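Hi C.,

You asked whether I'd gotten around to modeling the 449-residue construct. I have! Everything is below, sequence then structure, no commentary in between.
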Amino acid sequence: MRGNPFARAVVQRDGFPVLPGRYPLIGHAWVFFGDLLEVLRGGHARLGPLFWMNLFLDRWLLVCEGALGFEALRSKAVANGHIRKEKAGELILGGSMLSQDGEAHRHVRSAMAGLFNPRGLATGALGGPLAAVIDEHVARWCARGSVVAKSDTMELTLEAVFRIAGVPADDLPIWREQFTRFLAGAFAPPILLPGTPLHRAARSRRWLDERIHALVRRAREAPDPESLIGFLVLAKDDRGAPLTDHELVDNIRLLLIAGHETTASVLSWVLVELARSPDLWAAVREEGTKAPAAPRTLREAQSFPVAESVFREAARLYSPVTLTLRKLVAPLSLGGRAIPDGAFVGVSPSLACRDPAVYPDPDRFDPSRWQRRREPPSQYELMAFGAGAHFCLGYHLAWMEGVQFVVTFARRMAERGLSPRLAPGARPRLVYTPALSHVSADTVVHLLP
């Protein structure tokens, strides 16, 4: 785009300002191909915390930033049910709890919660397999002498989530192939004709659903409450109702999606920051090598405050979810102003995680900001994992996996006398998609003596 689109005059829509830079037909869609975080920051600085964006054609989104966005996500007046009306949304999320609200959402979430809360993670049933996968991948990286930050962490976390779901090791390559093709449907044009990306994604979803259903059937025949699917087939909601096979398939598919890409994004930035700071790397290595082993439970993970602070700071500064959407289904007032009925509301966890009122020097990677505290993070400080009814169910699992990764990386590297360093000329940067942000794909970390 030529010129400065933000230099244009500000217009109003339903009493709220419209972000300058809207173009015919494409609206503000161009922002997703640049620095989305800075666009949102610029909008806030010029227009305040509430302003409109036009995503595409006539699809309007009221951006609600900072504390007002947090208030919106926590409100019962906003919902996620609109996802299922989109072809890609229905394909990817189906009837999972992320696309449900109210009683349907409560039923599934309450049944699944026991597996992912601190008590459920105390046995090591999930932590053990996660630790094993992390160790295998880090060992290979050390032997190779380098890590491609984005792709290698994606491969690690995808195998980890497959492993805890019970996918046989020999089947991992075909699962990975089908899953990758399936996820490509999230960004495909909404055209469901033979040969189109959406059609191929639909075929891969059928393949995945058949295999997930087979895993569910086997778990019902021989329940093992120590495994992920074994626990879920026995789980009941807070009223004693179990999950149906259809609910299990939809939500296990959701766990596969949610359990790898966002975590991989954070872990890739962990690698970058450890490579950038020899002092931080020394602190991580010292803590990791003092312990007899890497953690396998949430309680054990709490014994590694330096590793935990590195993961928390990476999740804060590089929050993978830049913009999350809800739809207004009941009257809502934010900051004393009524939001238009039926409006789509956009909230930026990334921007909330860089709120200068909460984080001094918010653009600086500073793990010590977490080590200096005595109290646990507030709900606002956990915005990287969402807020309200759809707060990330796997938050504690991601926290444990992040600590496991940092500690295992430190221990394996120390064994070989290696240290991480960015490849010559590497300039890691945030790259945005309409859903998530990632480290730039060409970011390489060398593991050097």
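If it helps when you're writing up: The chain has 17 helices and 14 strands.

Thanks,
B.
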